[in-house]
Amino acid sequence: MALKPDRKTLEKRIRELEEALQNFRQAGKSVGEAEETARALLNATSESAMLIDTKGTILAVNEVAVHRLGKLNVNIIRMNINDVLSSDVVIPIKKKIDAVISSGEPIQFEDESEGFLYANRIYPIFGRHGNVQKLAIYTRDVTDQRRAVEALRESEEKFRSISSSAQDALIMMSGEGKITYWNEAAERIFGHTKEEVIDRDLHRLLVPKKYLEAFTKGLEGFKETGQGSAIGKTIEMSALRKDGTEFSMELSLSSFQFEGQWHALGVIRDISHRKQAEKERLQKEKLQGVLEMAGAACHELNQPLQVISGYNELLRKDIPEDHSLIANLNIIREQIEKMGAITRKIMKITKYETKPYAQGTIIIDIDKSSDTTT
What we know:
The protein is of the alpha+beta class. Helix content is 52%, strand content 22%.
């Protein structure tokens, strides 16, 4: 007959049972807390998250995935991905799953469904023996992101097309005074290639010394406020070409902020030809006034020349041919004829032709400028 345990033994066993029960409850509580933490982590992401076994059975899923799959009122745990994904999606995904199981390496890919673009990542989860037992699938809707990228690309292509076909130079400068953009027209006007100027100091490269100090001072204020005496205006000034020569240009400046810094965009037009044309026009206008005065003077000179010529001929008649004064009278006749020819040419000037003269100057070429056909 078995002996009954004494009181102390029973109390000890009761305490052991109570302790075991407490440990069990604590373990259950810890498991529950772990499950809640894992569920919170799954639902905290904006990506669709799904845990499956190697046969495609769904073991866990977050709320984003449930919404995306349209299974709000259905418990999809233990269902197969064949039952919850459309056929156009499940076939390529199963191929990717097989590749991850075979290689043991994660994989990334994109797929499109019902007009939406998704970025997918599949990660292997290994068992004790190193084989793939489960797979974690994360899916993110990148439709808006891709549209934004495409829109940005289209915008960039349009800007490149416009800037490359523009006849005016487009130059962008950072708040530090460095060149950040340089179009084809800028290469043509200044002579520097894009590779030669990017990240170089704009003012030291393109601004003549007479403007350099003022522009350097203005840059300090521009860095802070994006403002300057030339911002929002169109001004005329000179700039330096690659060979060091100065030319006249028309500059339109604007400012904008990018990544927290002020930048300037300059639209530059080479007006050296226009300036030269204006200079020539003014010269012609001045010359026209001079020629009108010269024409009037020639008209007035003709009558005295005729009188002088008449007296010269009368003197020749009264003096013998062998007289020493005949040679002087011949010289007077020649000069009268030269002056007459010059006055006739001046009065027939119809165009503006010049020729080089002393010390680098130019003068009107009377012979080329006058119409001697009439």
